[in-house]
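Input chain follows. Return structure tokens only.
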Amino acid sequence: MSGSPRQKTSWLALKLSLLFLLCLNLCACGLFQTQDNDPIPQDARKVVKTACSQLGKSYRSGGASPAKGFDCSGLLYWAYRKNGYQMPRISTQQAKVGQAIAKKQARAGDILVFKVAQSPRGLHTGICMGNNDFIHSPSKGKKVKVDSVNNTYWKERLIAVRRVIR
């Protein structure tokens, strides 16, 4: 796209706004269905919506706020705390909170834990949105986004699901 930097910024803002609205619409239109059709707690919906409000924010190592950006655990830490839930700041600790849930029972608001490196600290966390989607802050140079657990990369690395909100 050619044009001034201001036009490019406006175009990016428009695209991010549309992505955010799409996410909110999906949240309200059944994306939260579980395989066993259990109702999703309102607090779990709020955590997902809070995280969705940060779609497009830049990844930042050690980041845990909209002003600074987010790393994976920082996004969870921020979204849960904004909704009144205590959450550890580090992904290895987040991988132990709440109750372990079978992968097939994951629902909106659950924490998804992925093994992405061989080191003991090589974990990545995201927030389940339902229907095999999750929101996360992937890595340096990327932005907060929605991905599918059915993506081969994530499917092979999903090691745990944790339920914090009952």
